[in-house]
Amino acid sequence: MKKVIYAVLFLVVGGLIWYLFLKPSDYIVRFQASTFPGAINQTLKLWDQSVETVSNIEQQGDLYHLEQKLKFGDSIHHYHWSIEPLTDSTSKVTVRISDEDHSLKNKINIPFGDTNFEKRSRRTVLDFMENLREHTKKFKVTIVGEEEIPSKYIAYIPVKVTQFQKAGGMMKNFSYLTGELISRGAQLDGLPIVEVTKWDMQNDSLYYNFGQPIIRSEKLPIGTDIEYKRIFSKKALKAIYNGNYITSDRAWYALMDYAKKNNIEVENTPVEVFHNNPHVGADELNWKAEIYLPIKEPNE
């Protein structure tokens, strides 16, 4: 009997020590989101910039784990976000929250009532959930499957930006690029294209070529910052994106998830073809872009 009592006491004391001093979080919030991990990752980073407090967020090695610091008064709260894909269009999000300087106090008080720390944590996560719900209403991604990137000869301008600045870089160069081509009598040959040449997913930075397909001729601007190349046809996974072009990268993540699910090796160098002029109004959900993610060749 004494052995049983000692064993129970050992488990109780061990559990208390783990809960009070070793457990990494003070409070956990879980919810399900009706979108894929990449969209959650990017929305979370943008939301971090808008919260009404001092905040900082960092991606922890992959798209699925992020650590955020939020300052509330004299307290710094750590939010550890974990994103788990469930289906093609749903994800589970777990948020482990701790207070840098008042963790022990929180752990003691939480079992005995609804503390201010818990209420603030729920309000903060609910604010993000609402932000995410509103964002997912504004775009649509439809996976088409395997197709070929169309071969085009393009005049282009190399651009380096953050992912969020991608559309701004396009708009900044569109009038100049097309204006120079038309003024020299060049013949346009299709819709504007973005060819990503380097994508740093950890830091959300991009190198891309913003291009206008043309018919190759002698009537091309020379001695400017406009360059020329051919995009060769290549097998790729294709999606149709509808929404503001600022967030067309959501389709990149959807294609990456599709590739992973179907054991397809891809190159993280998307190609986008844009059907609409953002300067012309219309409902953004009617804007269309074809998104390609190149499939790796067997010898690559």
UniProtKB/TrEMBL annotation:
- UniProt domain AraC effector-binding: residue ranges: 142-296
| InterPro entries, per the entry | AraC_E-bd, GyrI-like, Reg_factor_effector_dom_sf
Alphabetic keyword roster? Membrane, Transmembrane, Transmembrane helix
Task: List where the protein spans the membrane.
Answer: 6-22
Q: Does the keyword Membrane apply?
A: yes
The keyword Transmembrane belongs to this UniProt entry's keyword annotation: yes
**Matches recorded under SUPFAM superfamilies:** Probable bacterial effector-binding domain
SMART domains annotated for this entry?
AraC_E_bind
**Pfam families attached here?**
GyrI-like
Q: Where does the signal peptide begin and end?
A: none
Protein name listed in UniProt: AraC family transcriptional regulator
**Organism this protein belongs to:** Flagellimonas nanhaiensis
Per the UniProt record, the lineage of the source organism begins with: Bacteria, Pseudomonadati, Bacteroidota, Flavobacteriia, Flavobacteriales
